[in-house]
Amino acid sequence: MLDERLGLAGRVVMVAGAGGGGIGTAVCRVLAEADATVVALDLDAGRLAVSEEAMDAVGGRYETRIVDVCDADALDATMGSVTGPLHGLVHVAGGLHDHWAPLLTTDPVVFGDVVRLNLESAFLTSRAVAGRLATQAAGGSIVHIASIAGLSAMPFGAAYAAAKAGMMALTRTAALEWGPLGIRVNAVAPGTIRTPRSRSERDLPVSPAEHSVIPLGRQGRPEDIAGAVLFLLSDLAAFVSGAVLVVDGGSSARPSYLDADNLPVFVRDPALRARLGLTGPG
């Protein structure tokens, strides 16, 4: 049975940034469906309630904690309150929120805050969980939610892109250091995902521009990311560590010089386009 091959039944997995109805909630729900016990961390009780409802809907087992994942002491206290052996961690906490700005006008304090929320919190939660896993001496799995912005660039969101790039380096380094302990560390790099924190346009139909840059022709859903996380946490990925799994509908594979018809923008030969079944310049 596939559920048995996942190897998550009865295992305890911590989810940092678990609330809100987006990726964190989707991860909590899919872990509950896989019969894992979820320890859900978030700073906001209202956001956690959304995930509690989702896990209740599938008969999941879970514990919730109100905790600031940027606070090392609070995390240590939380680790001490978790009953039973841990299997792993999914670090979801992060985001850019409304801190869009050109580099020249980016407030250094804001830059630091964004890096702290996205990167430092990943370091703190991973270190806390890895310490527990090392004591248990039974291995485990850690998954960081990064972003394709960390693989390329993000104009007007430099702090976020820098933090996610740093997270990928943290992922690979931790995989090397903690591999001898049997701890696997991987990351998922989402593309554009429609979540409750997205802009108001999230409920509108996919635009032609989105179709042109996302080969699969749609934005991602939180469930798309949760599926990748489930794989990396599970025994199906028992030999996968130090990897960054891109989940973006193919958008990062698409060269910037292609037009809407996937031809280089400088290809204007009507005969060639006709032979390829294209009616005109893209």
Describe this structure in words.
With 282 residues, the chain is an alpha/beta fold. The chain folds into 2 domains: 2-249, NAD(P)-binding Rossmann-like Domain (Rossmann fold, 3-Layer(aba) Sandwich); 258-282, no CATH class. Helices cover 40% and strands 15% of the residues. The chain has helices spanning 2-6, 23-33, 45-57, 72-81, 108-136, 158-178, 208-213, 222-233, 270-275, and strands at 12-16, 37-42, 61-66, 86-91, 140-145, 183-190, 244-247. It has a 7-stranded parallel β-sheet with strand order 3-2-1-4-5-6-7, with helices on both faces. Strand 5, helix 6 (158-178) and strand 6 form a beta-alpha-beta unit. The longest helix is centred in the middle third of the chain and has 29 residues, at 108-136. The chain starts with a helix and ends in a 7-residue tail after the last helix. The mean pLDDT is 92.
What keyword list fits this structure?
7-stranded parallel β-sheet, 2 domains, alpha/beta, 7 strands, 282 residues, Rossmann fold, 40% helix
Strand content bin: 5-15%
Which sequence of SSEs, written as H and E, runs from N to C?
HEHEHEHEHEHEHHEH
Spatial strand arrangement across the major sheet: 3-2-1-4-5-6-7
CATH structural fold name of the largest domain: Rossmann fold
Mean pLDDT: 92
CATH architecture call of the largest domain: 3-Layer(aba) Sandwich
Q: Structurally, how many domains make up the residues?
A: 2
CATH C-level class of the largest domain: Alpha Beta
In which range does the helix fraction lie? 40-55%
CATH superfamily label of the largest domain = NAD(P)-binding Rossmann-like Domain
